Every structure is written in structure tokens, then in C-alpha cells.
Amino acid sequence: MKKVNYWLACLFAAALTTTFTACSSDDDPDYNPPTITMGSTTTGEINLSDALTFELPVNITSEAGLASIVVKDSEGTTWLNQTSFTNPNSVSSVTLDLSNCPETKVLLLTVTATANDGKVTSNTQPYSLNVYVPQLYVALSNVSTIANEATMNITIGRGLKELEKAIVYLNGASIKTIDLSTKSTAKKIMESVDLTGLENGKNPVKVEVFEKGNAAAAATGNNEALKVSNFYMLLINSMQYELEIRRSDDNKIIEFIKFAYGGTPDEMGMPVGFDVRYWYFTYNDNKKLVTQIEETKDDGMGGPEQRIHLYKFMYNEFEELTSVTCDDSPYVTDVVYENGNIASYKINGNLYNAKYAEANEIRTRVDCLDATMSGTTFAFDGTERPNPCYIAELPAVIPGDIAGIPTQICYSQYLFKSLGNIWTGGWVEEDFGGYPAYTAKVNRNGKEWTFNYIYK
To answer: Sign of the C-alpha dihedral, residues 393, 396, 400, 406?
Structure first.
């Protein structure tokens, strides 16, 4: 028995030796770490209104085969975690889903490649990706009329989702439903609606826009269609000057008549000087936009009328201002719109930022376009009366003073009640020689001016 056990022990030992040798005869290959190159550029951009995914060039090779590719931004957000590959040894690009990007921003992307043997490589220089995220908005054009009807433009900027319809309300009642399904993927849509039966004063207009598959409105736009009384003139007085502003019923001519008085205030009598200026407006075919202003003057005494300036206005397909020339030279340039409103532009190369205020869901322009472009703002609380001098078809971009009074009188939808700390008295209703009038007193440039809107 001992001899048999001895040979069994020898066989068992030989089997162990053979097994051990088979496991350790050759070491596993020592693969190189993955390599990453980002191509000829490390910058890119994408507009998510065009596509929601971005092909990121990565050019990754891995001898051991790839286990994962992870893409993160500098804030730690993961935009990709890919673990399966058609060719695990070579990947030339990866697809990033950017549909959850919350806002327009620059993503500094780091790519990390992990091989099957656990070795890891990251790109040394982050890839800079500029992502533009469109936001759904509704912008309604301003309307001011002496008639009972008017047309209002509706501009819709699409967000990430397709659009379905828009519902228009006038004075609280639904008046029109607009089918947007045939334009559902357009970046920007322009529609118009006819408003009838306008009441004197303010007529609230609301537009609700619906995205596909959503029962609730995704965006709402609000404005007011203003029906104003046909005023006779705006009379502005100081102790030395008087300025009459008259407007033709068809809004084609504004006449500025400045009278200068001689003597002391107690001796004021007949005017000693006149300065009459005219703005002649040219409109496009549908009379929605001012395309030209010819500014002229004469001496008010029968002398010849002379041209001062000729302004020409250019627009894009969405009836947004793109530029203005003055005497055929560049004047207003680099016009930028945000959510359907002018946000900034340059005057003779100098950047100017428009200012807005909101009250009662109505947003309106409040910066005073005086000659110095001071940017002083009017207060706005939503209770203001409509401004009968307002020209809705005229973009508010050209600054200037006439007889010390800003041409803002043509740019404001409302009769604002205060301007910075210059004027805080507001407007009062008065009788002016048998005519109804709104009156305000303004201290400006060391003088007290009285404003009288006199109605027919």
C-alpha cells in the first residue's frame, strides 16, 4: 500500500506542476493607453434650433479596446457616457445629445477614454463648444390709430419644440386661432391679425402659443392696441420759446414750428424769429413701416424750404430694422433684436443699449432719445394715457432735440408721467380755450416748459 500511495503522490504533484506552468508561461500584453486627438480645431458651435445633437470629433484609438468614453463640461455635467462601440479600437467622433442644455452658454468639454485594461486618457485641452439655445417668445407690434380697426404683427421665435397653434385675444375675447403646424419647425414665424371694433384708449391684445403635444400655452405675448383721439397740436411753451407740433391725419407729415420771443418775460410780444422744420414720412406698400424721413426747414416767413437730412430705413424679412443711412452714409448699424425687440444698436459707431420697463404684463421702451443719448429713463406703471403723437411705424433709434425738446415725443406709446428727477409732476386734464387738453410742466435745462396736448 505504501508503494501505491507513493506513485499516486507523484502523479498528483506532476499534475499540479503542469497546471501552474500553463497559467504563467506568458504575461498579458502590456497595451499602450488610449490616444485622443481633437482634429484640426478645438472649437465648435451649434444652434439647437437647427439640431439637438452635435458630432464631437475625438479621434480615439485603443489597442486594448475601449470600455467607455465620457464627455463632461467644466461644471461637471456629463454629456456622454458611451460603453458600446462598432469598432472599440478606433472612434473618430461621438454624438452629444444637447437637448437638456438649459441656456445659451459655452461648454468646455473634456473627453475621457477608458480602455478594457483599465488605462485612462483625457484630452489635454478642453474642446470649446458654443451652444445657442433658442427660447420660445411672442412679440406683438405696437399699434396706435385714430380708426376703429388696425393690423397687429405677431412674431414668434421657436424654442426647441415644434409649434402647433396660436390663439389671439382682443379685450379679453378670443378673435382668431392661427394654425402653425405647417411652419412648426421654422426658427421664426411672422403672422398678422386684424383688430376691429377698437375702443377709445387701450385695447389689450394677448397671444397664446402652443407647442405640439402640449395642452397648456407654452408662451404668451401681451400688448395694447391704442386708439387715440385726433389731436389738434402739441403746444410747448417756455418763457422765451414756443413750439407747435402738428401732424397730418395720414401720419405723412410732422411739422415743428419754433417761435422765439424778444424782450424780457414781462415784455414778451410778437415773435422775433421762426424755425419751421418738417418730417416727411415715406411708408412701405402696406404702410406698416417708415422707410424714409426727409427732414427740411424754412424760416416761417415764406423763404425757400431746405433739406437738412434724408434718413433711409432698411428691414429684414421679419420687418426688423437692420440699418439706417443718413444722407446715404451709414448711421444706425449693428441692430440687435432680443425676443422681438430692439436690444442695442450703434449710432455713428457708438454702441447704445435700449431700455425697457414692464407693468401690467405690458413691456415698453422707456429710454429718452435726446440729442446726447443720455439714456435717462421714464417711469412706467401701466396707468399712462396713450400718446397721440406716437408713430408706431417709426423705429425708435434716431436721437435728437428740436428747440430743446427731445424727438422722443414721436417714439413713446404713452404719455409718461416722469423722466428721472427732471419731471415728476405728471399730466392733468384741462380746458385750453374751449378745447380739451392734457397739460404737464417740465423743468429741463434750467427752463420750465409747459406741454399742452390740445385735441380737436
So the answer is: positive
CB atoms closer than 10 angstroms to residue 290: 22
Tell me the β-bridge partners of 324: 313, 332
Q: Are strands 143-145 and 350-353 parallel, antiparallel or unpaired?
A: unpaired
Q: CA dist 310 to 235, 306, 418, Å?
A: 26, 11, 32
H or E element in which residue 221 lies: strand 219-227
- Ranges of beta strands (E only) in 33-135 are 35-36, 43-47, 53-61, 66-72, 78-82, 90-97, 105-115, 120-122, 127-132
Report pTM: 0.80
DSSP symbols for 389-423: T--TTS-TT---EETTEEGGGGT-SB--S-BTTTB
AA identity, residue 315: Y
Instruction: State pLDDT tens for residues 150-196.
Output: 999 999 999 988 999 999 999 999 999 999 999 988 999 999 999 99
- Nearest of 327, 326, 332, 278 to residue 305 by alpha carbon: 278
pLDDT band at 332 (very low <50, low <70, confident <90, very high): very high
Contact 225, 145 (CB under 8 A): yes
- Do 319 and 395 touch, CB atoms closer than 8 A? no
502523479: which residue's cell? 11
Cα separation, 292 vs 82, whole angstroms = 58
Name the nearest CA neighbour of 117 among 221, 29, 216, 247.
29
3-state secondary structure of 33: coil
- Please name the residue that has the C-alpha cell 497559467: 23
Q: What gap in Å lies between CA 158 and CA 184, rounded to an integer?
A: 8
* Burial of 2: CB neighbours in 10 Å, binned 0-12, 13-18, 19+: exposed
Pairing of strands 241-247, 350-353: unpaired
* CA 87 to mean position of chain CA atoms: 45
